[in-house]
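quick q for whoever's on today - can somebody do inverse folding on this one?? i tried earlier but teh output was garbage lol. tokens:
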């Protein structure tokens, strides 16, 4: 009981400090986090602990060591942070995350290390698969309600809408060699208007096939989902109202074999 009180007083203090720094009331902070005012009130009273997703969003709103505290509470490990830096070899020099020293490795002439400031955001990796053509995806329409398996961290410049960004695993190989089975795609659910997605890789949903990873094309007014492997015929979304565009794929991750 004492341990619970100690832990709750810690998260209560952190949330109150964050809200004060942002100059928001309970309703406003709750809206930023996509939770109800009632939920935030319970967190601040210590009767209920925030969810991992809420901790992630609070970490994205916070700065420095406070970001670290929220992300650690959500389950993000320091090893996850060190993996997610711009191309080359990014070496984390401080535990206080706003300041990074980026060291560029490789052959050639010596290059001086560049001191820069970077803002990281934590992105949930959902326990959800998007299928490519020929492979069935999971039947999850609302990603906000999906289970979070782990978290990764990425520069904020890579995530224009962090509160609406999630990672999905890929099932199937019809998007190979660009995106392969087992890769992780990062999906921005704010970018879901067909008018701005022609030629882009997206995740869509259908009640029969679940989540589908494809390239979205509009040709002569016809909306198509096309795979990279031309052995698979394009899927016409047509007038089928069961199709929903979930979001645009921003980038993807592949573990080396």
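ok took a stab at it. sequence:
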């Amino acid at each position: 009981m004492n341990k619970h009180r100690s832990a709750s007083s810690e998260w209560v203090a952190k949330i109150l400090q964050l809200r004060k720094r942002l100059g928001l009331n309970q309703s406003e902070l709750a809206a930023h986090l996509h939770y109800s005012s009632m939920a935030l009130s319970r967190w601040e009273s210590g009767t209920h602990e925030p969810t991992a997703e809420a901790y992630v969003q609070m970490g994205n709103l916070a700065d420095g060591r406070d970001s670290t505290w929220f992300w650690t509470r959500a389950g993000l490990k320091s090893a996850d942070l060190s993996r997610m830096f711009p191309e080359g070899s990014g070496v984390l020099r401080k535990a206080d995350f706003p300041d990074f020293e980026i060291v560029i490795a490789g052959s050639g002439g010596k290059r001086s290390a560049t001191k820069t400031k970077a803002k990281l955001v934590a992105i949930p990796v959902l326990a959800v698969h998007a299928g490519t053509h020929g492979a069935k995806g999971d039947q999850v329409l609302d990603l906000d309600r999906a289970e979070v398996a782990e978290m990764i961290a990425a520069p904020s410049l890579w995530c224009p809408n962090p509160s609406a960004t999630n990672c999905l695993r890929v099932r199937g190989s019809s998007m190979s060699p660009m995106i392969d089975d087992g890769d992780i795609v990062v999906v921005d659910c704010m970018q879901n208007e067909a008018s701005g997605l022609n030629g882009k890789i997206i995740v869509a949903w259908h009640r029969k096939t679940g989540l589908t990873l494809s390239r979205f094309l509009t040709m002569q007014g016809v909306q198509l989902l096309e795979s990279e492997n031309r052995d698979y015929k394009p899927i016409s979304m047509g007038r089928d109202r069961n199709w929903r565009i979930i979001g645009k794929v921003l980038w993807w991750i592949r573990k080396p074999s």
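fwiw Residues 9 and 46 are 7 Å apart (CA to CA). also The radius of gyration is 20 Å. so keep that in mind when u check it
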